[in-house]
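re the bet — no i am not wrong, look at it urself. input seq straight from the record:
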Amino acid sequence: MKKQLFCMIFIVCVLTSVLLITSILWTHGNLVTWNKEWDADSLQKTQINRLPSGKESVNLTDGVYSYYLNITQFLSEFPVLQDYQCSLTLTPHGHFEETLAQPLLILAIKSHLASGARRNALRQTWAREGEVSGYWVKPIFLTAQTAKKGQTEILKIENREFGDILQWDFSESHHNLSLKERCFLEWLHHHLPRVAFIFKGDDDEYVNPYAVVQYIKEHGQSPITLHGFRQPDLAVMRHRKYSVSRTLYPFHKYPQFLSGGGFLYPGCSVKSLYEASQKIPVFPLDDVYFAFLSLASNLTHRHDARFRVLGLAFDACQYQRALVVHGIGPERMMEIYQVIQRTQCT
């Protein structure tokens, strides 16, 4: 009898233990699963709703229209543009402010890593470091990175020889051109606080440094004025290369902006532009982004048709008078430059 009672007690204990362990494991499994789901959901919400350091939604006005830039939507559609921390991989060398008696004019040229032929053509023509009518002119090519290691090595060789490369570690892409704007402003602010003027352009254009310097002497007195080819009230595109979504930018027009094909701004404006770039969302079109930076900085624009951002049929004398002519390949650049140098214009 005692033996049977002992067996029954033992069986009850075993069954109770099994039930208890099963209950614990089931509860723990559900808890782990719930925690995983909560963590993933929390992480996703954190990624969507986090605010990058200093960035915020802004409402800008040009006196006629207001433009609201919602940082949450920019983080959702273009998070890298908002969060990227400017990390340099190559920097230029040569004569800068500390060694110069003349005011410094930077020719900052956006260039794709693979565009070595264009850079070489410019170095052999107008993109040369030296004195021009009392200004020290320093060309700098603004580049990013690609997955092709060979191109990166070639760029390092270029920089050792010419000292004119400024490169960051983000990838070359159409939308990332805005990062070149933001990161270049950061570099200027920290490394060249006394730069006199900056010309921004592309590597497929002819620039006349002599005409640019003369323009500065005639029209460059205002510390808050940007100079270029003004684009008035352009309609927003919803398709193809320059499209932006309605959720990102619900307005039909952009504020007036200077064409990114070539414009000029005083060094005095860099501080306010840089400070604005630390606060407002980074727009995925570089010239529109610069327009918002200038609005946030209370800067004005001066239009001049000699910024030939839409191109110009070749005429040596017209090119001598132009500040910039957009849309010229490397071989053609070499040809027209020789003609321009030989031509005497009245």
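see?? The chain has eleven helices and 14 strands. told u. also The first helix runs from residue 2 to 49. so pay up
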